[in-house]
Automatic annotation (TrEMBL):
The lineage of its organism: Bacteria, Bacillati, Actinomycetota, Actinomycetes, Micrococcales. This is Metallo-beta-lactamase domain-containing protein. It comes from the Bacteria. Pfam families: Lactamase_B. CDD domains: metallo-hydrolase-like_MBL-fold (cd06262). Keywords: Hydrolase, Metal-binding, Zinc.
Length: 233
C-alpha cells in the first residue's frame, strides 16, 4: 500500500494519502489546515487521483481543507455522529483558533460544506480506491470519532516486530497518549469505553497511524501507554 504522510500547516495534524500504488486512485485522510499545496505536489509526483476523503472526526484541524479536495465524484466520509460538525466547524472553534488562521494565512477563515458527504457507521466495511477498510467507531474525543482498520501495511515498513495491518486512529490514540476529552462533544467515560472495547482488542501486529505525532504499534502502546494501563479488553 502506497502511504504518504505529511503534517498540516497548523496543529501538526497528520494528513495521509493511501493508494494501491503509483498512478492509481487514492484516499486522502484528514486534510487539515494549509495542506492544499503539499497535497497537489504529492498527487502530481505519484500520479494519483483522489476518489474519497476519510475524516476521523469533525474538528477543524482535521477537516479544514476537505472541500477543496472533494468535488465531482470525490465524497467526504464521516461518522454519522460527527456529520453535524461539517455544517460549520468554524462556528464551534474558539476565537483564538479563528484569529490564528487569519493571522497565519492573511485572510479571514471561511468554510464551505462539501457537496457530497457519506455518513459511515460502526463496523461498516468500505472499499475505496481499491482498498478495503473497516470503520471502528471510538467516541470520546468527539461523539463521532472513528478509526479505520486496513489489512495492509505501507510499502517499505521496517520494524523490529512483525506487523501485518494498519489502523488510522485520528485523535483517539497517539504514541504514548490519547486525545483530549474536555472539548465540546468529548467524554472521558466514552473514551475509556473506546479504549477498552475498541482499541485494546486490536492485534499487537497493528501499525498505528495517529492524527498527530509519530507512528507507533499496538504492541508498544499496550505495554507503555499510561492511558491503556489497567484497562482489560
Amino acid at each position: 500500500m502506497l502511504t504518504i504522510a505529511f503534517p498540516a500547516a497548523a496543529f501538526g495534524t497528520n494528513c495521509y494519502v493511501l493508494a494501491q500504488g503509483e498512478g492509481e486512485e487514492c484516499v486522502v485522510v484528514d486534510p487539515g489546515i494549509g495542506i492544499e499545496e503539499t497535497l497537489r505536489e504529492v498527487l502530481t509526483q505519484h500520479r494519483l487521483k483522489p476518489s474519497a476523503v476519510l475524516l476521523t472526526h469533525g474538528h477543524i484541524d482535521h477537516v479544514y481543507s476537505v472541500t477543496p479536495v472533494c468535488g465531482g465524484d470525490t465524497a467526504a466520509y464521516i461518522h454519522s455522529d460527527d456529520r453535524y460538525r461539517l455544517t460549520d466547524p468554524l462556528g464551534s472553534a474558539s476565537p483564538g483558533i479563528v484569529g490564528m488562521l487569519e493571522q497565519q494565512f492573511g485572510s479571514k477563515a471561511t468554510w464551505r460544506e462539501p457537496e457530497t458527504v457519506v455518513e459511515i457507521t460502526d463496523r461498516q466495511a468500505l472499499t475505496v480506491a481499491g482498498l478495503d477498510l473497516e470503520v471502528l467507531h471510538a467516541p470520546g474525543h468527539t461523539e463521532g470519532s472513528a478509526m479505520f482498520g486496513i489489512g495492509l501495511l505501507p510499502e517499505g515498513v521496517r520494524a523490529p516486530e512483525e506487523l501485518d495491518r494498519t489502523m488510522i486512529t485520528g485523535d483517539v490514540l497517539f504514541a504514548g497518549s490519547i486525545g483530549r476529552t474536555d472539548l465540546p462533544g468529548g467524554s472521558h467515560d466514552a473514551m475509556q469505553r473506546s479504549l477498552r472495547d475498541v482499541v485494546l482488542p486490536r492485534p499487537d501486529s497493528t501499525l498505528v497511524l495517529p492524527g498527530h505525532g509519530p507512528a507507533t504499534t499496538m504492541r508498544h502502546e499496550r505495554t507503555t501507554n499510561p492511558y491503556l494501563q489497567g484497562l482489560t479488553a
